[in-house]
Amino acid sequence: WGALDTVWLQGNAFDPMLGLRVYDHVDKTLNVNQISYTGTVNVDVPDDYDLVYMLTDASGNTLTHTRVITVVAAADMPDQRIQFTDGSFEAQTPITNLDANVGWTLKVGTGTGTWNPHQFVDGHLVIDVTYVGTVPHSIQFFQRNSFKFEAGSSYLLTFKAKADVARDINVIFENPSDNFANYTLHTVELGTDWTTFNLVMHNARLSTADAKLGFFIGLIDALNPSRSAATKIYFDDVSVKLIGYANDEVAPYFWAPVGNVVQNAVFNPLTGLKYGDFAKVPTLTISSDTVGLVTESAGVYTINTSVVGTYILKYTLTDWLGNQKVYERTLNVTEPA
Questions:
Q1: Which of 77, 95, 295, 330 could potentially form a cystine with 104 if both were Cys, beta carbons 3.0 to 4.6 Å apart?
Q2: Using alpha carbons only, how large is the chain's radius of gyration in Å?
């Protein structure tokens, strides 16, 4: 898994092994280190590049898979669906302990940790950890903000950090909707001087509309307490940039039953709908060629059922890459019994 045809942002290093996973029904010793490949990707020159992967199990069965990497200029990348709120801490946006907070959240996880009230100092953030707890997620500092993290996509996370006493932190991209599965986890060594970190955060699992991106600053290693010193930790200039995504040319899926409604009764055009998309959260619009049948206000659609007849409702689904599905649904408006 994971060797999807991929669109990649020019100028960013590309690792052909990023996110790959393997499985064999019989050979349980098979692992990603046994994958070989041929081909190269010149990330400085926009073009299509072929990578050919090969993997052989213990019985001699060989898989060969060709993957196309399309390097594109920044102008050809789609708008990303993850944006930090106050990543520079200049606005001093309130930080709460609520998962639904718009902006930064600082909270206790399992294995209670403690800290003094956070401070904004000279345009950066200071978290004074007084007890690291019993697990890395004892203290969690993150943003959630309905982030959409597409399967096969990669984001470059950039931030500045330091600590009064050198220690480690975990940097995570996880999915609370998938039992808090870690889609990406990096352990980062903080020194006592400001350092800029650039980490590739990759989703090799499932698309999610509920990604969580941030820092675990609790107990990193119970066997090496010095890696988890209780100290002041400083953050600044946190940003994220989409640098790669799975090449998706498949339109969203849609299904709806025939609509039946009695004259002048309320008909909800969303009733019975089933729809979805590889990358989650496609945009839905509803229209009709019959003038006056469909009206919309603030995203709420109303259907005019005052005239008996058979009509066509047109549902248009568009995903984040512009792939579109148009579905025509029959609506029967009947006289009262």
A1: 95
A2: 25
